[in-house]
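Private note to self, pasted from the team thread so I don't lose it. Backbone tokens:
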């Protein structure tokens, strides 16, 4: 049985959920349904949508939202926070090392070929000092819970983590639609995230920038699945939302085209993948980036948040080595656990996975959003044979993990309360003064019964996360 975050095995309510249980006893199904409908209307009116790539209808979807909050006690969050800060410090140190002296490779702790043959490794970044030595300014690390004490890191997101707009939207719904329940708790606030994000962007500005730092958010455009979030965050921060065609590079400096002429840009919060950032350096066919951007970056005239080349830190093939990075760079024992991970290029591990493939989750190493993932417990024999063949052709492109029985929380679906599996994506902001973690983050929900897949791109939903005193 999965761990129920609300109730103990004897049916009694865990302490963090006492007020929620009391509230649920006092509301009717009709009241819950009305609030669910109001939450959906809030998302629809606000344009809070998510496009699913490959969707035959090509439509943007409303993010399914569950109105019952997920609760974590302050002491539970404190341990999570410490573990996340530790992990992010190690990943930043690893990136500085990989693009610098490469000591961890010389020590044999991370296999060198996992770096050199990694499609996310960017040799253009080698020897390039990044502003303030920070590569990961914004991190979203996915966490799952298995019991009352243990949290596991499912994966690291150090490139362009998304979903924070849904976290902020969920909190606004909680305050508006459930004021009596919200008021019964002392809930740690998340509403200041846009201001904290703006401060992080400004702190990343090159040392030669003026005091009036100009930051922009670079989006691939309205057809990107997370375009709503791009426009939402730019608006909340009071900065310009730009596409590649709105920027140009002259004399190794980046300028934004405005109605008053050109304005120099100091910081680019990019939501465009590395490959498309600069057609002169990466994909020559890209229309999303800015020609010459990397030259301005190399000259130290513009900061790019997050740094180019971060994918070599959050690639799934690198994930098994993060605990070793923590020990190597910080001389500390990892606070948070990794999910046991099998490397398909290792024959012994591959053989074990093939023998137990019905119990495994197979993942492509350079995919995200739930794409390229096969759940052994739900796959047909033909699908399992197909993934075996794919692994044998490209073993380095896959990892395997045992199916983790992740925790559940109550959700209001189809007129009744039912348990559903969840994960948590906390958001961290990293600047010269340290790491700030938003208290809570985005809880993602696997809406289908027994499903363990929570990604929005795979039909998952979300709920508000309360850290309570």
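Design output:
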């Amino acid at each position: 049985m999965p761990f129920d975050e609300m109730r103990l095995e004897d049916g009694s309510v865990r302490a963090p959920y006492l007020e929620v249980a009391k509230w649920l006893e006092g509301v009717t199904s009709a009241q819950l349904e009305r609030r669910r409908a109001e939450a959906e209307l809030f998302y629809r009116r606000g344009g809070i949508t998510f496009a699913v790539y490959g969707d035959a209808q090509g439509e943007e979807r409303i993010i399914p939202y569950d109105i019952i909050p997920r609760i974590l006690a302050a002491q539970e969050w404190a341990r999570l926070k410490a573990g996340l800060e530790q992990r992010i410090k190690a990943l930043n140190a690893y990136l500085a090392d990989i693009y610098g002296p490469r000591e961890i490779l010389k020590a044999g702790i991370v296999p060198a070929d996992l770096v050199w043959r990694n499609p996310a490794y960017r040799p253009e970044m080698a020897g390039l000092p990044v502003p303030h030595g920070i590569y990961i300014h914004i991190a979203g690390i996915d966490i799952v819970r298995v019991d009352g004490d243990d949290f596991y890191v499912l994966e690291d997101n150090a490139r362009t983590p998304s979903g924070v707009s849904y976290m902020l939207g969920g909190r606004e719904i909680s305050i508006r639609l459930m004021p009596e329940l919200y008021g019964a708790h002392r809930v740690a606030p998340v509403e200041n995230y846009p201001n904290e994000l703006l401060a992080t962007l400004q702190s990343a500005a090159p040392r030669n920038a003026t005091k009036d730092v100009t930051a922009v958010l670079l989006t691939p455009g309205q057809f990107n699945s997370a375009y709503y979030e791009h426009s939402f965050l730019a608006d909340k921060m009071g900065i310009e939302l730009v596409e590649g065609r709105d920027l140009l590079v002259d004399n190794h400096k980046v300028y934004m085209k405005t109605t008053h002429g050109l304005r120099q840009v100091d910081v680019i919060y990019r939501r465009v993948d590395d490959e498309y950032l600069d057609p002169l350096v990466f994909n020559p066919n890209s229309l999303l980036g800015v020609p010459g951007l990397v030259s301005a970056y190399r000259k130290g005239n513009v900061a790019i948040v997050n740094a180019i080349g971060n994918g070599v830190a959050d690639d799934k093939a690198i994930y098994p080595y993060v605990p070793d990075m923590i020990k190597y760079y910080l001389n500390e024992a990892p606070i948070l656990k990794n999910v046991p991970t099998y490397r398909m290029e290792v024959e012994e591990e591959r053989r074990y996975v093939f023998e137990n493939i019905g119990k495994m989750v197979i993942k492509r190493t350079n995919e995200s959003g739930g794409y390229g993932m096969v759940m052994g417990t739900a796959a047909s024999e033909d699908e399992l044979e197909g993934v075996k063949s794919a692994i044998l052709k490209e073993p380095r492109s896959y990892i395997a993990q045992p199916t983790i029985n992740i925790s559940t929380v109550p959700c209001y679906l189809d007129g009744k309360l039912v348990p559903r599996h969840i994960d948590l994506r906390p958001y961290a902001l990293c600047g010269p003064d340290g790491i700030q973690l938003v208290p809570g983050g985005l809880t993602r929900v696997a809406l289908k019964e027994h499903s363990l897949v929570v990604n929005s791109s795979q039909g998952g939903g979300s709920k508000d996360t309360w850290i309570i005193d």
